[in-house]
Amino acid sequence: MDIHVTDAWRAAFPDAHAGVLVLRSVRNDARSDALAAEVERLERQVRQRWGALTRAELAALPTIRAYQQHYRAFGQTYHLLGQLESVALKGRRLASPGGALVSAMFAAEIDHLLLTAGHDVDAVSAPVVLDGSQEGDRFVGISGREHVLRARDMVMRDAAGIISAVLAGPDQRTQLRATTSRAMYVTYAPAGIALDAVREHLEHIGRLVTLAAPSAVVEGVETYPAV
Question: Is residue 120 part of a domain?
Answer without folding.
Answer: yes
